[in-house]
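User: I'm preparing a small set of examples for a lab meeting where we compare how different chains pack in three dimensions. I only have the primary sequence for this one, and I'd like the structure in token form so I can line it up with the others. Please keep the answer compact; I'll paste it straight into my notes.
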Amino acid sequence: MANIQSMTDQESEKNNRASYTTNATGVLSYMETELSHDDNQEEIERNLVDGNDAAKQTTDTDKPFYRRKRFWVICGGINVIILIILIPLIILVIFPSVAQKAINNSNLSFSYMALQMPIKNDSFSMSAVGEVTNGGSISGSVTFPEPVDIIWKDTKIGKVQLPDSQFSGGSAKINSTGIFNITNADAFGQFTIAQLSNDNFTWTLDGKVDVKALGITKRGLDFKKNIVIQGGAGFKNSSLIYYQFITYNNTPLGGQSVTASIWNPSPISIFLGTLGLDVYYKTTFLGLIESQNLTINPGQNTIDFVGGLAVNFTLRDSPNVAELFSRILSQEPVLTTSKGAFAKPDGVNEVTWLSTGIRSMEMDNLLPNVTLPPLLSLLNLTLLG
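Assistant: Understood. Below is the structure token output for the 385-residue chain.
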């Protein structure tokens, strides 16, 4: 019995060991399976990641270059560099050069100018209407920070402040009134002679100008322009349309009443105030005639003068006076000469440079039909007798 029990215990232990072995083997097998599964999962995940990267790489490679992010980053950087270089280049080099060229190529002309009161020895008021053309296609504005020099025959004769102007399409209008300051009185007197006597004259305007366009302002550009202006040409196409001897201020021989038609070919209007003219027949002085509050405008001017007859004829004048009255009585042509004597803008005081110009004026005119008053007829008979 004991042996049988012992054998039974041994068999049971053997079975237990087999069971343990089997269970251990199963656990090991299960662990190996799990580990293998984990390894496979990691491999799969790695493959997926690698596959995605490869797919991404393949996708980026297949995109057109202009759709790639790197392309636009590079372009942006290049644009920034270009702007950093180009903006200062435009502001500091290109725009000033273009603006200066436009100024140099532009044309300046005046269609009307007026010398107005107050007129003094060192200044006068001047109005001007003009135009700038051929100034390029850019729109903007010009400003003159200080008066420009007026130069005549290489001599500075004055300064004037030009107005600010807006330009568009290469042109600008000028309409201004300012003070012309005379810097050389003697030279300006000579200029006035030329302005009244010559067919034309040339002014050079020299100064600085500020230009603003396209949001850019460039200061201190050179402004130098030659402008040719038509002169008075000596008022050659002038005539007397009325001449009559009159009673004048109780003078012994009376006076002269004259209406003259004066043609001014220049675009310049000049306020003269009181203008005095000395009237001559040949070398004999006939008397002074005056017109008051006078302005000589461009074009035709009808001007009334009045003045006394000279009473201090000398023996040397007698032949000329006798000839004058004889030609008047016989209604023959009588040629007289009018010479500028003075200009008094305020009616009292002469302005030196203006009178200098006026004294250069000399006009020959035929007298219209004239009737001698009784006293002059008697004088004529006395001279002839």
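A couple of notes for your slides: The first strand starts at residue 107 and ends at 119. Residues 1-39 have pLDDT under 50 and may be disordered.

User: Perfect, thanks.
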